[in-house]
Amino acid sequence: MERLYSLQGLRGAAVLGVVLFHMASVEAKYSGGDLLLPALVDFFQLGVDLFFVISGFVMVIVTRGRFQSAVQTQRFAFNRLSRIYPNYWLYFFITLGVTLALPGVVNTSHGSSNLLMSFFLLPNDRVLLVMVAWSLVFELWFYLVFTGLLLFKEKHLPLLLALWACGLIAFNLLANWQDFNPALKIMLHPYALEFIMGSALALFFYSKHSVKVPTPWVWATLMAALTVGFGLIYVFKLFFTEGLLRMVSVGVIFGALIGSLALLERRKLIRVPQFLIFTGDMSYTIYLSHLLVLGVIGHVWQRIGAWPDSVWDNLFFLLLMMSAVICYGALAYRFFEKPVLDWATAFCNRTFAVKRAAGQPDSAK
């Protein structure tokens, strides 16, 4: 599978943005009254939207040339589930243990969770035990739909994605997804448009048309996404809504960002900082664990004490929180997530073996 470092770098930026967004509430809770993080950090909750667009792009990458194959479909489903569940279950049980032993460390303001539904990441009316895992419920739905798309001919993928998108847009123009049961809320939510945008973008990226786009146009698209696009998102506060306007607008803007960076990388015109690539590698672990880490650091800071008449304590507090999140993420990725993924890959290769011609490399991961 081709690896685009720009995608990993954007994953890293997205998860750091989500961490910053949640750090603002932790600072407000434990800093003694004064605040350093501005309201601008509200923008960074859109890191999840960026994850969704990237996810759609990646799904096209990992399934190229693997449609209408029972073995490849099994491999795809197994790899997606093994990517989501083992790491998630670790933090499910950690959160459950902390909730039982030290309920004040985690946010319990939303009421009790349905543990069985939380464990399997199934839609339900209660908040999930691992609160940030709500996005994983959407990811699983996207993966399920994409597994179904693998049953068709690959040349029909653009049409199938277009039909899915048109169906969602038509529904959301005529009805409200919030009026339905939890499962239908996931299926009918316009979040899927961001995933579809990423998939469509990848289809364009791998088409003959992408190489014909002049490089100045690519740079202009990148600049427009970062300035005009991000500016419009902030001016209209799209991060506070969950409707069709947000998903279409943010999907297009983030799609322009991802597509332009991917094209510039392929043309060897940019280099992604190594720190962002590494953060992207461990972004899933950071995403799942950061609320727990922030809660622990907040309680430690509460014991140390804050000085409301100075911003220096806030600065140190924020640096301490971010450092702790990244350090824990690096350790947990190195000693848990990566070994589990390596084991899952080896198991998949043994169990769902693909017959290949002599000398043909096994690229199905």
From TrEMBL:
Transmembrane segments: 44-67, 88-106, 126-152, 159-177, 183-205, 217-237, 243-264, 284-302, 314-333
UniProt domain Acyltransferase: residue ranges: 5-329
Molecular function GO labels: acyltransferase activity
Source organism, top-level taxon: Bacteria
InterPro entries assigned: Acyl_transf_3_dom, Acyltransferase_3
Record's keyword terms, sorted: Acyltransferase, Membrane, Transferase, Transmembrane, Transmembrane helix
A Pfam entry, by short name: Acyl_transf_3
Name this protein carries in UniProt: Acyltransferase
Organism: Pseudomonas weihenstephanensis
Lineage of source species: Bacteria, Pseudomonadati, Pseudomonadota, Gammaproteobacteria, Pseudomonadales
